[in-house]
Structures are given as C-alpha cells and as structure tokens.
Amino acid sequence: MKIKVSWWVLVVLFLTLFGRSGYARTGDGGSTQGQGGYQVGDAVSAFRLKNTDGNMVSLSDFASSKGVIVVFTSNHCPFAKAYEDRIIALNGKFAGQGYPVIAINPSDPGTHQDDTFEKMKERSTAKHYGYPYLVDDTQQVARKFGAGRTPQVFVLQKSGTQFVVRYMGMIDDNPQDASGVTKLYVDEAVTNLAGGKPVVTTITKPVGCAIKWKNQ
C-alpha cells in the first residue's frame, strides 16, 4: 500500500511542477474543456466514429437505450489507466439498465504513440472492454462536447429522439485509489436517472490528462 501511495504522490508532485506537460491539476485555474461545448440540459448532436473492431458506431445506434455514458479516455494517460477497471465496471452495472458506456479516444497519436488505433485495438482486446472504443481522429466530437481531459464523462439521457446531457465531469472523487472513493458521481447520476429521479450533482471538475489539440 505504501508503494501505491508513494507512486501517486510522485505523480501529483510531477504534475504540480510541470503543469504544461498536459496533465490536469485540481484548482489550477486552467481550462478543463475544449472550445465551446455542451452544458447540462443541452441536446447532443449526432456523431459517427470508427470502433476498434473496424465498424462505424453512431449515437443513433443507441436509440433503444435509456441513455449512454460517454467517456473521453486514452491509452497513455495514468489517470485513464487508473480508471479503466472502474469504467468497465460502470458498463457492467448499467448497460443492462439501459445506460451502456461509449468510450472515445480523442488523443493525438502524434503526441502519444500509445494512442494509435492499433494500440487502441490491442488495449480493448486485452481488457475485454465489452463496449465501443471509438477513435476521434479529427477531435471534432471532443470539441463539440467541450471535453478537455481524459478521462472525462458525459452522462446522456434519452429524451424523445435526442440525447440530453444530465451530468458532466469526473467519474468519482479518488483517481488514485478506488478503495478510497467517497463520491460515486457517475454511478449516482445514472442510478438516479434509471430510477426516474433527477441528478443531484450535475457538474464536477474533471481531473486527468489534458487533450492536446492538433491545431495548437
């Protein structure tokens, strides 16, 4: 346990000293999302991206779902890696309740080689994701959502023919230690929605690796 805590202390220290490396810091005052972006209550535009199985996946493919859990994530980010099993668990818990996970990788493979499409396929297969892992190679979907970090979550609820944002932010309140989590933001949001109740906490500040935009 000491080794695990020490490793995360070093990570946090590194991020504090070298904030420009692309990693988020809590309360750093910087932008946590791309230009523009959806707000809670907004309807999401349709998107269509390539999955790691080679097929194209559209938001409209989930028309029969009650909603979806959109997670912007990546292969290289230590925060995304720390949350990987928790994302898998969210899909395992909520897909059957009508809220499956859609994972999207907007990371520039020119900046991080671990985020190439081939590496995405390898990771999805090795971890048996059980949900789509889509490549946002133009980063346009991430920009529309206003995503700025990996991981960053948007819980969408089906309303008529549209998907509406009901929660946006972090998965829970403890990136470094799943056993130390006290606030299950996404879990609580989806549980409420599935039970016909409103989401209590609708926005939290995502903590993770900053998305490197290709035109910057």
UniProtKB/TrEMBL annotation:
SUPFAM superfamilies: Thioredoxin-like (SSF52833)
Domain named Thioredoxin: residues: 38-191
Pfam families in UniProt: AhpC-TSA
InterPro entries (alphabetical): AhpC/TSA (IPR000866), PRX-like1 (IPR047262), Thioredoxin-like_sf (IPR036249), Thioredoxin_domain (IPR013766)
PANTHER family named among the record's database cross-references: OS07G0260300 PROTEIN, THIOREDOXIN-DEPENDENT PEROXIREDOXIN
Protein name stated in the entry: Thioredoxin family protein
